[in-house]
Protein 1
Amino acid sequence: MLILHNTSGLVHHLITKSDVADILHNALDSHILGLDECIRLFKSNDIYPIAMVSNILRQRLYGNTVTFVNNIILNYTNVCITYCKFCAFYRPVGHEEAYTLSLDEIVRRVLVSREMFGITQVLIQGGHNPNLKLEFYEDAFKAIKTRCPEVGIHGLSASEIDTIAKVERSSTKEVLARLKSAGLDSLPGAGAEILDDDVKAEISPLKIKSHEWLRIMEEAHELDIKSSATMMYGTVETEEQRARHIMKIAELQEKTRGFMAFIPWSFEPNKTRIQAEGLIRYSAGGFNLLKMIAISRIIFNGVIDHLQSSWLTNGIGMAQLALNYGADDFGGTLIGEEVVTATGSRSTELSAHKIIDAIKQIGFEVAERDNFYQTIKNY
């Protein structure tokens, strides 16, 4: 494990020799960094001093403790009308493989998972299904809270909220308010991909635009619905577009303080239209993950507290390494996930004891958290 308690000696020497030394020293002095600095970090290949600084910043905040959440992902429908090129999960309306879970099945899955695995969170996400009205989601959330009040509902992307509002011919803010009343605790960050409309026009032209994702997140924060922020990188975006994505999230966070965590994850091209059309053949790989984690910690230092190591698309080994590059959270256990599984890239089942073992293997202490990153139990 890379443990660096100060910047004296060799550490100071390596940072000073870096082509981004001024940025790294400013980060260690807790200065807020801007777009130009973020772009320079992405363009630098001097990853070791960048990683040293990101690890120091993580240690200042969390010492030697890494968290995880015990949850399931519940993909309630695969029916979708946005046809994103990066997705292997969706099925069009009327497709023979299309499905939508019944209310009884949704509640059953949560109850069984609570009883068998002791989950404290359910992450509810699906496709953009035009046949589902707001009452479907309200009934599901109310039923979950009635039967399992101790399970937090981390549910629905901004783009799903937008679809529901269109079906209802209502505003997204009204939809969010009603969902909160029904039991929604927090909002995942999905649907952002890269917050650049040129990228979105290429990979997800029918999905919400960048400003709409930001607006819906701001509305959620105004209603005191905390959320995650995400980035799906490794499609057609440039390093500058990645940097602009991060800065747009930082700017909204400065305004609302509603983002609890940032979660970058690597695009998996298997069985997607992007791969079929020859745009991207391979995933971004481990180096890009570690660089993304390190830069995110530096830029979001003092802005967004938590940073996930993103094991789902990069595997457990890379997620372990990411803990030495600035990540403080391992993410969640996964039972029943279907979106990444649809690419066929790897098994996406992971139990709590496997996460605990993975974190301890590299010398960290482990704490289980809830929806809001509050510690439930130390291991």
Protein 2
Amino acid sequence: MVRYVDTREREREILGLVVDSYISESKPISSSYLCKRYNLSYCPATVRNVLLSLEQQGFLSHIHTSSGRVPTKEGFKRYVAHLKEEDIVKDNPLAIESEPFVNSSLNELIDHTLDTLTRFSGYTSLIAISGSSEKVFYKGMRFILDQPEFEDISRLKHIFNMLEVRMSDLQSILFNCIGDRVQILIGDDIGFEDISDCSLIASGLRDDNIELAIALLGPMRMNYLKATSCLYSVKNQLRDLMDELV
């Protein structure tokens, strides 16, 4: 009996494993690594052929002469497109302790929310608020400094320039992401050249008196499932506290 092989499904699987591995390892991923790490049923030659096909389609690239490959921006976008909402909801690792903040100020709640989101996600968190005035708050730049992608000081300067000088531009981007869905913007899709080698995960809430956007900023090599789950969790809990924010 001839066994039918879904080539697209196999490519989707291998691409997902490459991205997951690259997120955790921060180094090029080879076919031998994948076979050993995930105990794949495919032989190494088959995996190599799939990696080559993914590279030819623009989802992976070679780094110098290494036998391994790394995801491109398009590879990350394809990976993110296959994240399932039920997995995001299920992988929900944090909770805001809302009780102590029922009678607290807006600034106290924002500070606590940023701290919680940053601590659990491992990325820089941002909140933009529009009401009687417009402000952007952020926390966790230390996590940017920990990423190997930003050992180049010039790349760090671009990020600091965005946060310190061009905050109004960032604010506009965040407010454009307010809506029911969590949006994942990768690379130059953010629309901001200074952070075109980053990813931004954002969403928000609005009512008659206030707009609130929440976001996570990190390298393109983000753990998208974990970060999106953290943001989803915070957003849902802030929705429950919305009456207390105004």
Protein 3
Amino acid sequence: MFEFQNPVWFILLLPWLAVVWAVYARRRSTGMLFTLPPGLPPPRRTWRLRLRTILPAAYLAGALLLICALARPQLVFARVTRTTDALAIQLVVDISGSMEALDFSTGRELRSRMDVVKDTMAEFVAGRPDDLLGLVAFGGFAVSRVPLTLDHSALQHVLAEVQVPRPQYDRQGRIVNEEDMLTAIGDALAVAAARLEQEDVKSRVIVLISDGESNTGVVLPEVAMRAVKALGIKIYTIGVGSTGPAPFRARDIFGREVIQRAQVTMDEELLQRLADETDGVYYNVRDPKGLERAFSEIDRLERTEVHSDIYRRHNELYARWLWPGLVMLCLALVGNMIWGRRLI
């Protein structure tokens, strides 16, 4: 939508119109009518005569453009209130150390569980443009990375930056951030439920993706589950991988990257119980295709209406009026002073 931000400057049109009248009234009053004698050729219009006609018009046009520039023309993308069928979904992803397992690799490309989960979640987010989506990441503690929002581009940006914490060692070779490698499922559910509780929508869902067992945290998973159930929130759980040995990147004594197997444990019973108690569904996925199928089924959830106010910034257009106006005004002033010995 096109509009002027400061239309009060159009009051300058009054003196501008007065100048227009003065210029052309003066030209009419200084003219003289006469009849050419027979046989004389008609007078030629020299470039000086043409300039005397053009320069006042250029001066006035330049002044008009400057007045319009002062009024700040803008292309405004105003607030739009949109009503859509949508769902409030809190994505809760495990970033504990076991998510670095490479058992989801395809072909020669080594991909961790986290890589595949992030890609699949990104496709899920892209396919639900009208839903309120948020992101909670948890290892030894839970952090709300993105509150529930319709700004999915920001969510995608944050999701792409989610990483499994790297172990940090002290001088004695001991891990100093061991808690980051653990799994606090109860805390993650509590944070997600707190975010969803604030949203006035009919359907609220938590999608929990984990590959481990809850072994730390302030809130027990069972306590968080009861709170989620009391709020009427469904939990859809996705268990990534299974209990047993899984391949991981490692380095040998020479610093070379090698693949080693390590034991991982997943509490499928807990994930199944979380889903059953809240009328959700549990999915166990062991490859990228299985993860895609799980998200595809979740994509067919019920929907409800969400009213959203969308704001978009405006584009300033005054420069497109300012510079042509200045150029025309300066040329007209210089031309009038050189050839007409006057300002206008």
Protein 4
Amino acid sequence: MRGNEPFNSLSAGDTRWPRRLPERLGADAPERLTLIGDPAILDEQLTALFCSAKCPGGQILKAYDAARALRDAGRTVVGGFHAPIEKDCLDILLCGDQSIIICLARGLEGMRIPQPWRTAVDAGRLLLLSPFPPTLRRPTKQTARQRNLLAAALADDALIIHAEPGGAVADVAAALRQWGTPIRTAEAPADG
């Protein structure tokens, strides 16, 4: 679906504003979020999902099993869903009926929304979220980093499938540890 999507926004003073953002991100917290979907999803228990773009073959099946376990447990999952394994996990999650938050590394204006996402948005279980101006159309390395930190800052816990040493997901894992956020691996994906 081509982007003439109606989107809403939340500001730092709004009652639905996620308290964790200023607590965890400090001065780097966004002042506004644009969104498509039900903002009430932000109030749910959130598990962040991350995987580096380069993922060892042995972790791939574990990633799929972990995504199925999250889906079957009804866990709300938040992430950027940009790396190949993250995209595959999103496909698995979209087959369930739990909520999902996709944090974007670009603005929402003019964005093509894939049909499976559209179906989930219409069902009230998918929230598209961006901390960037609606007109920012191209993700960059910096906006991807901000997107990942946003997803991590929103989360109650995190599942890290694989973090390439020195990579972006390793940086997110360090931030999660600093915030005291519980981190799971694909070997121990979810306890419901």
